[in-house]
Design goal:
The protein is α/β, with parallel strands linked by helices. It is built from 7 helices and 33 strands. The longest helix is centred in the N-terminal third of the chain and has 18 residues, at 2-19. The protein is globular and about 75 Å long. It starts with a helix and ends with a helix. The chain binds (2S,3S,4S,5R)-3,4,5-trihydroxy-6-oxo-oxane-2-carboxylic acid.
Length: 603
Amino acid sequence: MICMFRRLAFCLAFCLSLLAPSARAQQATLLVDIDHRAQISLDGPWHYIPDPYREGWGSNPDRANPRGYAANAHYVPGGPLVQYDFSRSPTLNVPGDWNSQDKSLFYYEGLLWYQRDFSVHPKPHTHLFIHFGAANYAASVFVDGQHVCDHEGGFTPFDCEVTSVVKDGDNFVVAAVDDTRTVDRVPTLRTDWWNYGGLTRSVALVEVPDTYIDDESLQLKKGTQDQIEGYVHVVGADAGARIALSIPDLHIEKEATTDTNGHAEFAVSASDLELWSPEHPRLYKVSFTAGPDHLTDDIGFRSVEVQGDQILLNGKPVFLRGISYHDEAPVRSGRSWSERDAQTLLSWAQELHCNFVRMAHYPHTENEYRLADKLGLMVWSEIPVYWGIDWTNPHTLDVAKHQLWEMIRRDHNHPSVILWSMSNETPESPERDAFIHQLAVEARKEDPTRLITSAIVTHFRGTTATLDDPLGQDLDVLGYNEYLGWYQGSAADIPNYTWQNPLGKPVIVSEFGAGAKAGLHGPDTEKFTEEYQDYVFRQQFQMLGKMPFLRGMTPWVLMDFRSPMRQLPGVQDDYNRKGLVSDKGEKKKAFFTLQDYYAKMQR
Ligand code: GCB
């Protein structure tokens, strides 16, 4: 009966997904490869006003309303009544979350207004955008008092077109950013991580010509290792416009013409191609020219596929020696955003001898993907469909699809990304299955070249785990999280657990771990000591070593991270302590145990 209901739910979801307009059709502009565009940075100090009573919305608190704080009025002694003034208000640094910059905002969740002045001299026949790397969670943006865009989703970029709004010379931008947690949002009310609010990634003005490339992609053709194919999309191009592709190191110069939608396709053979891999992370300088627009990118070519329960990279079986991590700034706390943050985090992964990282639980800053491309680290990239969300709410589905679309759009040229993850630890239900099924359909439509996964909760019956969550049917690779020795079972018993894989797909154990406070030593039976964490890792290796279908692991977690769920004074102090490295950068015993384990695997 349950089975029949599930099947019905699947059918219904599938039919609805065919009827619904694809997420792509609903999108505003999102410029790919933004790091290679000329930009005028709007990073630096922005004035801010926290607004728990939502006063800044003026008379209409439900809609983006340019008459409130968006008007950026000034208080003039003796003048009309004005009860705010950005120019008299303090500043926050952008990029950066508000919680870690002002002590009084440490626990603040809600609406906060940002403002800064900027100067620009727009050229004729150009489009001007304000690019936001990310604003957690929802943002409404106004330029010179006019509403220019809204965005929902805290970890993906968006571009507000301001061409017709800005004047030559001085202008101002106001952004209302709201990180209130609500039932219908993605993520929703509860997460085991800090809800860092604000303009957490860089903001910049980006000028592009009248006709411009908003999307491009080049990859290996599926099933080949010497055929490159891809496309360019040009906004404003007439049908038949000539687009040039150049890859100098491969002596490739090719032209294609746009169709009526501004879409041009390329297919070229490249017999001398050096494939991208962890051992040889070869990137090629690629350039596209579309009329007045010229865009370069650094692209690597590699194939990734599944064969039975194997994952093949460039046609050969690969074992993913991974680590999970949050986008949390090393050593200073807060959201990470800088190249230096990325460098520190990924160099720890390299020290562990990882060839793979799981960027949990949402899209990380693009710096990390670019660096992973260069370092040869394969990446699992995820959207924040986390624990129980509002599975039957159409808005929630829309927002999840939108975040998925934005993640794929931003990152589809990074050879490091091999897996798109749809979700993490979602409770089983037909509604959940139908929801995630639609995400998987969307992901495959947007990017047929990568593998689809999810991190699923492992349920043990006695000492056996059967990997039969119905979600697995939608995935290419099964991720399973388990906390034997921490939330479940004793550490001593871990090696006695066995696993069954009825779907016969490749399996990654996408989380296991134990909490430890750096510097806290004691017997290996005492939770929160470094010795206990280390013991759990050693026991886990014994069990994992006996799983014939195991194709990788991403233990939880690289570094301690802030979480309001972790309140034990003197031990947790607002931090999830399952890191192998503490929030202060101290390496715990288990760091070296994992390092040793991965080193041995390489030999
Ligand atoms: C999990 C979650 C992760 C948590 C972790 C924990 O299963 O996926 O977000 O932080 O457990 O430490 O409990």
